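Chapter summary example.
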Amino acid sequence: MSVRRVRIGQQWKKNETGEIYLVTKLYTEALATVAVLRKAGAETEPLIRVKVVRTGDAQTIPGFSPAQQYDDF
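The structure predicted for these 73 residues follows.
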């Protein structure tokens, strides 16, 4: 599932485990957008960096699905 745009503060659910992750940072690296994710409630665990995939007008994070409905984005 995708959203129009991945933004800081969005919550995404990891498809394999159902754990919730928070987008803490977005940056561009060599023509690709990278999202930095942190597990919700686990500030001391390592961050995860995942390339954001664009499909038409939408963006998604592979292996994750939006944890909330983001119609406004």
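To summarize the output: Strands lie at 11-14, 20-29, 32-39, 48-51, 53-55, 58-60, 64-66.
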